[in-house]
Amino acid sequence: MEYADDERFEGVRFNAATPVPDRCEGCTFIDCDFTEANLGRRRFTDCSFVGCDFSNSKVIGTGFQGVTFDRCKALGVLWEACERLLFAVRMTDCALDLGSWNGCDLSRSGFVGGSLRECDFTGALCEGTEFEGVNLTGARFEETRLKGARFSGVTGLELDPTLNRVMGMRVDRDALPGLLMRWGLEIEG
Question: What is 59-95 written as a DSSP string?
């Protein structure tokens, strides 16, 4: 088993020839390419990823605990396959389109800026999750627990309150139209 503690990886293309260490703690990954990489059963604790590409990577059983993603790209990632008990992330200005968070516990996670277009949040636990300034066009929320979740400055939010647990959810004025669409209500002024 390979361990990496407080190491810095820059511009590395991770693949079968250059595998990701099994356990990474306090590591920094800058402009690394994880495209289609198999990250299964790996553990990342207190790591940061900056400008990395995770598109179509495999994250079955992967743990992301206290991890930050900044300006990363992760298109089509099935985050639902991650280790659920080891998942606490903060994603800033990331392109996360077409991903699935189905059934994930995102209560210790947040999304600031970037894009979550066409993502699936069905059955996710988003209690206290922050969605700030993200594009949620086409994102699916169904049976999602949103108590204490905060939506501010978001675009494209369409969320049916009758299909989700929204009591205590916080939204700014810009997000209201996406909550009222079901009833055909429009906000003026």
Answer: -TT-EEEEEEEES-B-TT-BGGGS-GGGEEEEEEEEE
